[in-house]
Design goal:
By secondary structure, the protein is mostly helical. The protein is built from 1 helix and no strands.
């Protein structure tokens, strides 16, 4: 009667070791992915930041030109009409 119990315990120990081995493998795979993808993600973030800075600069130029046009239009509207 003790034989099936011993066999069950033996199988449970094997399963536990297999789970630990799989967990180590998964952790190693995740670590490798982070090492591989980390620099790529950093590069994308820098690129995106550069693009955003360019767009903000371009939008600032448009704002400046629009404010010049608005100022000139206001001056024309305030000129006395003949």
């Amino acid at each position: 009667m003790s034989e099936p119990e011993n066999h069950t315990l033996h199988l449970l120990r094997e399963i536990r070791e297999d789970i630990r081995r799989l967990e180590r493998e998964v952790r190693e795979d995740i670590r490798a992915l982070r090492e591989d993808l980390g620099p790529r993600i950093d590069g994308l973030v820098r690129t995106l930041a550069g693009e955003m800075a360019d767009r903000i600069h371009a939008a600032g130029g448009v704002e400046h030109r629009l404010s010049d046009i608005e100022r000139r239009l206001l001056a024309l509207e305030q000129e006395p009409k003949e």
